[in-house]
């Protein structure tokens, strides 16, 4: 018995492998599920804060439609409360939202008054003896008013970027009032008010949510960007200063594009954050003028840091030059001696900047919030007694620390003065030795680095002095209101709006910065803004220079000149966009004005097709196919999601609000974390809102009929798709605007502008009379403004470069690598010419005059060759012309000029010790790098446009 019992398990174990067991598979699946759940990481609350805030604004507006009392108070157009919030985007700072609310409400009010006039005139044209309100005469009047209103609105929208929100709300008002009036007998102003009221209510909700629910502090946003940028600058300074005094040629592999990327990274964002601060109501220790000063200080650090990085590049080129062994040995020895002199100053600057960052953190704005603090906002801030006790108890300690740190700027000044004397003692003998040995590159390299280090130290001293000043004067937080000057500059300036608006016509929001460098014709090289493009007529009036005709002299000629300008304006891009939009809107609105179709078109709410057409019609550039597909997919996804939301809630308003809130939060989270899905998410939100709210209104009897949800969703999807497709078709008429073409024209425009800046600078070395004049304050401001315009043009060109990747290669492959090289080269040239402008301010007039009188003809030939090359590159890129077969390149012109300079000019010890020698050396190094970049740009342009070949003609005619 025992034996059989012992045999049984043996037999069972032997038979186990013959039968497959599901146990291991089940355990693997369970383990996989456990691992998958463990790997799911919920994003931090800060990532969800803005999507939830936007979803709260949307759900508040939706509840006003779901609530009978609110809907009856607002009117039948209560759905517009939620729609306008999609465009207001209340998750931004209060000042930005407030500005958009002002513009949007003003635009809606003007459109409402205009619509009232149109409805009144249409009612006068209506025959009172005919009962049916849709009549040919009244319809004709409404069509005329609709066409004119949309035409003017579109021109304003594309001509004045900051009026975008005003035009969006005007489009919504036009689409409802001037169409519904066709079926409304008599003159009833309430028809307009029922659409104006929800627009203003939606604006109020956006403003309230932006100010009350987790408000975004513009000061906090600015200080985040500022401190991050200052830390990046400090790290850059340390890395490149240490690399400069390293004799290894493979130290820091820096290039001019990498210099730009590291130093320019957050500068445009910082400027836009500064503008947001200026138009916001602040509760902070700092005000708008303090922020302007901080922005100016960090912007002044950039040229010096760029020069230090350029010094590292030039040093590496010398050490890698196999034909300059003697110069390399001398350079390595000089670096070892100068390292001992400059190392204390570089360390002091690095530590002082770190200290300034820590001292600026108390001015950061609002303290960082914990998750619980954020969720329970604002009560933890109201009852945060522990914070105030800690603040009072630690006040004396903080004051002692501040007193201890106030000597930093003074000590840094003293160290700079002390090391300047030591550097003179060490550097001048080395400089004279390099000059005698004709090592001009090393000679100017030392001058370049010392000049940039001195200026960087002076800027750090200015930063520390400002920090000490605000520590004394800005001891407590208080309210700061926007100044009248800032408001006038904001609302009455003619400059384009560079704020961080989320605008519907922007096909892809690639960065935080919205670049609106809108030019009438990017490829127009005879830009009327150039002073040389004007000619003085006999009457003393300036006219645009036209090679076909002379300036008008008689009344008849002036009359026809005015007619000519009117025709040019009528065929301009903005006017044509207005004409296309108005014509398309009227064609799609025709069923409202025809008696047989007005009723069913009204029942279908065809107004939404008009709204989508007006909002999404834009200049097609780049990702036209991608944008259209994403909009259509977003529309379909919104309709399907609306059906799902309705089926989940089953018409329960509370359940519908909860499910809508969850859907809004998820969609806005996707929108903010993945900019490529921006158009998809916006159309999904719009269509979802239309389907859910319209279905609820039909169920509650607000609208006649009882259609099922899929029928309503199908109608909404169809109407939105019609608007999207119509906008896409009109955008490509008469021809689509390609991003690669706009990129080429814009690059030509930028090269021309860089040439203009270079001509302005070099004129001070060509004309002795100009050389003796110091630049005025207005000239300096104008030069900085031109360089900032270049930065924004190049930022727009980077957008075009990105958009070109979405264009299908129908006619051939796009040479993206070559255009990328051109873009990076032009970017570096813009940085270098800006650096030359900063350096030129420190060269004394007497030294400039001496340079202008030395080798004047050779210098003129050299500069003329460079400017001619830039003009040729700009012209050939714009017109797609080939370069001439015979051309003196900038590199050859530079070599010829240096050869003449070396034979006829030698530096004496007095020249080397001259106060302007350091700035002169920095200018020489920067201008040499500029010429090298121009030579590379010329070679790349040859690959793109080609070179004329006279021998080809000879071969064909042999």
Automatic annotation (TrEMBL):
It is a multi-pass membrane protein. The keyword Phosphoprotein does not apply. It is found in: Membrane. InterPro entries: ArAE_2_N, BRE4-related_DUF2421, Brefeldin_A-sensitivity_4, Memb_transporter_dom. Pfam families: ArAE_2_N (PF10337), BRE4 (PF10334), FUSC_2 (PF13515). Residues 9-18 have a biased composition (Polar residues). One of its GO terms (cellular component) is membrane. Keywords: Membrane, Transmembrane, Transmembrane helix. Residues 734-887 form the DUF2421 domain. Residues 1-27 are annotated as: Disordered. Residues 137-281 form the Putative ER transporter 6TM N-terminal domain. Residues 599-729 form the Integral membrane bound transporter domain. The chain crosses the membrane at residues 73-89, 101-125, 137-156, 163-179, 191-214, 624-648, 654-672, 679-697, 717-737. This is ER transporter 6TM N-terminal domain-containing protein. It comes from Lichtheimia ornata.
């Amino acid at each position: 018995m025992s034996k059989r019992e012992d045999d049984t398990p043996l037999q069972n174990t032997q038979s186990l492998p013959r039968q497959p067991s599901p146990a291991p598979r089940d355990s693997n699946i369970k383990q996989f599920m456990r691992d998958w759940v463990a790997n799911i990481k919920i994003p931090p609350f800060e990532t969800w804060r803005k999507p939830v805030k936007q979803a709260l604004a949307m759900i508040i507006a939706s509840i006003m439609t779901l609530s009978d009392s609110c809907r009856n108070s607002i009117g039948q157009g209560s759905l517009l409360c939620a729609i306008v919030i999609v465009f207001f985007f209340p998750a931004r700072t209060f000042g930005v939202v407030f500005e958009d609310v002002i513009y949007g409400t003003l635009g809606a009010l003007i459109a409402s008054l205009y619509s009232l006039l149109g409805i009144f005139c249409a009612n006068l044209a209506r025959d009172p003896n005919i009962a049916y309100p849709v009549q040919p005469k009244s319809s004709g009047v409404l069509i005329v008013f609709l066409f004119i209103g949309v035409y003017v609105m579109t021109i304003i929208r594309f001509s004045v970027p900051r009026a975008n929100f005003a035009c969006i709300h005007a489009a919504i008002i036009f689409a409802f009032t001037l169409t519904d009036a066709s079926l409304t007998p008599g003159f009833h102003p309430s028809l307009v008010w029922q659409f104006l009221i929800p627009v203003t209510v939606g604006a109020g909700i956006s403003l309230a949510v932006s100010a009350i629910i987790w408000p975004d502090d513009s000061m906090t946003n600015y200080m985040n960007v500022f401190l991050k940028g200052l830390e990046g600058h400090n790290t850059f300074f340390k890395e490149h200063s240490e690399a400069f005094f390293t004799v290894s040629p493979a130290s820091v592999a820096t290039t001019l594009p990498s210099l730009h990327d590291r130093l320019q990274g957050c500068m445009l964002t910082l400027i836009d954050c500064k503008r947001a601060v200026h138009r916001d109501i602040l509760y902070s220790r700092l005000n708008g003028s303090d922020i302007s000063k901080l922005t100016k200080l960090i912007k002044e650090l950039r040229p010096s840091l760029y020069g230090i990085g350029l010094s590292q590049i030039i040093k590496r080129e010398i050490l890698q030059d196999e034909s300059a062994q003697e110069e390399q040995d001398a350079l390595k020895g000089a670096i070892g001696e100068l390292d001992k002199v400059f190392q204390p100053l570089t360390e002091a600057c690095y530590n002082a900047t770190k200290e300034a960052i820590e001292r600026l953190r108390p001015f950061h704005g609002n303290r960082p919030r914990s998750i619980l603090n954020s969720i329970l906002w604002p009560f933890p801030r109201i009852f945060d007694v522990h914070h105030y006790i800690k603040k009072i108890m630690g006040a004396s300690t903080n004051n002692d620390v501040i007193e201890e740190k106030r000597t930093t700027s003074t000590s840094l000044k003293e160290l700079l003065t002390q090391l300047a004397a030591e550097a003179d003692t060490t550097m001048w003998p080395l400089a004279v030795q390099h000059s005698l040995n004709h090592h001009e590159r090393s000679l100017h390299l030392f001058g370049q680095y010392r000049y940039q280090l001195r200026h960087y130290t002076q800027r750090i001293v200015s930063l520390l002095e400002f920090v000490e000043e605000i520590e004394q004067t800005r001891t407590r937080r208080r309210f700061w209101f926007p100044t009248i000057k800032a408001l006038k500059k904001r609302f009455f300036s003619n400059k384009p709006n560079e704020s961080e608006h989320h605008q519907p016509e922007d096909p892809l929001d690639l960065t935080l910065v919205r670049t609106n460098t809108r030019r009438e014709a990017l490829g127009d090289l005879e830009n009327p803004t150039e002073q040389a493009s004007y000619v003085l007529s006999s009457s003393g009036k300036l006219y645009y220079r036209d090679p076909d005709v002379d300036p008008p002299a008689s009344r008849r000629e002036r009359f026809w000149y005015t007619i000519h300008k009117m025709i040019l304006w009528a065929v301009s891009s903005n006017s044509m966009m207005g004409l296309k939009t108005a014509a398309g809107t009227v064609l799609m609105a025709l069923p409202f004005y025809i008696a047989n179709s007005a009723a069913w078109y009204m029942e279908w709410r065809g107004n939404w097709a008009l709204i989508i057409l007006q909002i999404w019609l834009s200049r097609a550039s780049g990702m036209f196919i991608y944008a259209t597909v994403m909009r259509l997919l977003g529309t379909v996804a919104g309709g399907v999601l609306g059906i799902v939301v309705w089926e989940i809630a089953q018409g329960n308003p509370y359940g519908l609000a909860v499910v809508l809130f969850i859907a809004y939060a998820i969609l806005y989270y996707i929108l903010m974390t993945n900019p490529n899905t921006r158009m998809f998410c916006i159309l999904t939100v719009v269509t979802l809102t239309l389907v859910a709210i319209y279905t609820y209104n039909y169920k509650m009897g607000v609208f006649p009929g009882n259609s099922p949800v899929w029928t309503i969703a199908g109608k909404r999807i169809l109407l939105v798709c019609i608007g999207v497709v119509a906008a896409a078709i009109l955008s490509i008429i008469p021809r689509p605007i390609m991003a690669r073409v706009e990129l080429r024209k814009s690059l030509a425009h930028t090269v021309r502008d860089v040439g203009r800046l270079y001509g302005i600078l070099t004129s001070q070395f060509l004309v002795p009379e100009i050389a003796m004049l110091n630049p005025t304050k207005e000239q300096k401001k104008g030069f900085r403004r031109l360089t900032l315009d270049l930065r924004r043009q190049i930022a727009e060109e980077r957008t075009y470069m990105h958009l070109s990747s979405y264009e299908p290669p129908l006619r051939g492959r796009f040479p993206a690598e070559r255009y990328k090289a051109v873009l990076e080269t032009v970017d570096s040239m813009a940085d270098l010419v800006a650096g030359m402008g900063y350096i030129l301010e420190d060269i004394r007039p007497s030294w400039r005059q001496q340079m202008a009188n030395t080798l004047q003809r050779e210098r003129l030939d050299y500069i003329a060759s460079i400017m001619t090359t830039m003009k040729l590159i700009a012209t050939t890129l714009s017109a797609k012309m080939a370069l001439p077969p015979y051309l003196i390149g900038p590199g050859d012109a530079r070599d010829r000029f240096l050869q003449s300079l070396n034979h006829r000019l030698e530096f004496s010890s007095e020249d080397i010790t001259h106060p302007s020698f350091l700035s002169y050396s920095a200018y020489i190094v920067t201008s040499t790098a500029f010429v090298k970049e121009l030579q590379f740009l010329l070679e790349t342009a040859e690959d793109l446009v080609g070179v004329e070949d006279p021998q080809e003609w000879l071969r064909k005619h042999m």
